[in-house]
Amino acid sequence: MEQLIDQIQAHLAEVEAFQSNDPTEIENFRIKFLGKKGILTGLFASFKEVPNDQKKAFGQQLNALKIAATNKLEESKKSSGTKSSNPASTIDFSRPGQPIDVGSLHPISILRNRVIDIFSQLGFSLSAGPEIEDDWHNFEALNIPSHHPARAMHDTFYFDSNHLLRTHTSSVQIHAMEKSTAPLRVLAPGRVYRCDSDPTHSPMFHQIEGLCVDKEINFRNLKWVLNDFIHKFFDSNNIKTRFSPSYFPFTEPSAEVDIYWGLETEVDYRITKGTGWLEIMGCGMVDPNVLKNCGIDPEEYSGFAFGMGIERIAMLLYQVGDIRLFFENDMRFLEQFKSTL
Ligand code: DAH
Predict the structure, then answer these.
(1) Which of 38, 61, 198, 268 has its Cβ near the most Cβ atoms within 10 Å?
(2) Mean pLDDT of all residues in 71-77
(3) pLDDT-derived band of residue 82, with 50, 70 and 90 as boundaries?
């Protein structure tokens, strides 16, 4: 027994004397004293050989050695900068992966990006204009003079008699033609504003405007471009389209573009008003007056334009009955579009 106590004292002296900043030496120290086959394990194993009346004293000595070795190890690790526990030994690499939270794009952004992708393949580049517009760009230059009945349809938010929140992205056509010379192909996605609010109208919503001006551009070009877009957007070459006569002050002739949605379900009946057809955008040949207003000679150039509402298409595509859901930022709604990316 005395021999064992002497051994403990000798180890204690060694522990106390130990000093090192070298991670390998520190690790060796750990193995020597605290390792599975180390000195302390050995001493604890000899506990059973100690006569009963001496067990208490022996135990105390042994514990003192263990505490001293553990403290010395922590101290040395701290001062050498090594972490107090070796991460490699605590990570279980065989555990299955655990997902982290992944954000997602807003459904309106998803669709806007899809439209941009398709038109950029046809050489259209992005263009932007201000959301606070003047009367000229939003109305006058687009062939909508001050007493034109079309103004009443726009439910405009006015700041003063000359400044307003743009009611459509068609105003960007004018900026684009003023800024650069023909030929040009531009796509203008953006926010627009109208004083209107109910389950299918929101005071702020999004439109995408397109404009193509070049020599000898004709209505057949317009039809080809929009059909190509629709086939790519709805990912089907079989989708039927229909161009029917319409009226917009800035295009002549004007048309609305319908797609055949079908009449298979009750919902189809409701959203197509029993016809099977859905209007998805307006379009037409740019009125010569509009070209002239922007300094482009209509004798030399012609163009087509089109405009669509993103929320409208999103509501159809995702069967969303209330436009306000797009702006309330309810995660339960938004998370449903993660897989659409
Ligand atoms: N600006 C129209 C609207 O807000 C949409 C539109 C229709 C744009 C026909 C066009 C077009 O460029 O040719 O309802």
Answers:
(1) 61
(2) 88
(3) low
Q: Are 283 and 304 in contact (CB under 8 A)?
A: yes
Highest mean pLDDT (candidates 20-29, 145-154, 326-335): 326-335
Q: What is the rounded distance in angstroms from the CA atom of residue 122 to the CA atom of residue 81?
A: 59
Residue 331 three-state SS = helix
The preferred substitution site among 156, 306, 313 for testing ligand 1, maximizing ligand atoms within 8 Å of CB, is 306
Instruction: Please report where in the chains the tokens 């606070």 appear, as a residue.
Output: 132
Q: Is the pTM of this model over 0.90?
A: no
How crowded is residue 124: how many other Cβ atoms within 10 Å of its Cβ?
20
* Pocket test residue of 186, 213, 248, 291 for ligand 1, highest count of atoms within 8 A of CB: 248
311 lines ligand 1 (CB under 6 A): no
Q: Decide: 198 and 322 in contact? Cβ < 8 Å.
A: no
Q: So what's the pLDDT on residue 92?
A: 86
| Ligand 1 midpoint to CA 252 (Å) | 12
E strand or H helix at 189: strand 184-193
pLDDT computed for residue 128 by the predictor = 96
pLDDT tens digits for range 166-181: 999 999 999 999 999 9
Q: Does the Cβ of 305 fall within 6 Å of ligand 1? A: yes
| Closest C-alpha among 52, 17, 14 to residue 33 | 14
CB atoms within 10 A of CB 176: 22
Q: Quick one: which H or E segment has residue 214?
A: strand 204-214
Strand partners, 192: 205
What mean pLDDT do residues 239-268 have?
A: 94
Tell which residue, 4, 104, 105, has the closest CA to residue 60. 4
Mean pLDDT across 37-63: 87
Task: Sort 286 into a burial class: Cβ within 10 Å, 0-12 / 13-18 / 19+.
Answer: buried
Looking at the chain, the whole-number percentage of residues with pLDDT higher than 90 is 64
Closest residue by Cα to residue 173 from 151, 142, 131, 145: 142
